[in-house]
Fold this protein.
Amino acid sequence: MVRGDDEESFVLADIPGLIEGAHAGHGLGTRFLRHIERTRLLVHLVDISDTGRDPADDFRVVRNELHQFSTALAEKPVVVAANKLDALPNPERLAALRAHCETEGLPCVAISAVTGEGLDELRRLLAAQLRNLAPAAPATPAP
């Protein structure tokens, strides 16, 4: 549970990373993809530290997996959280991710889970986004 301003709260669920090919069942892909179909809003937590990979490319891979699995899932509202701001080796990594998000019209908030930097801004943004979305439909039991 995340407590927002004015005593509002919302549930935030952490879904482990998806790998390329998840839509076809690779890794734990389809199990997690089916689980997130019930969400109203997706938050992509993107690692901007020096992993040797491009954060914008990592984000594109996950977005493609969502689209390959379900158009409805790919069209859900999205917020990008650029994590590990405390371990950012080069500001260009964050700038490139922000530029990519801007071209898609997606909000991008830089955060550090370690130091807490940006977390209040992210929490406020999520609460505001959720206030503008219709309530989630009740989950239907699996057959």
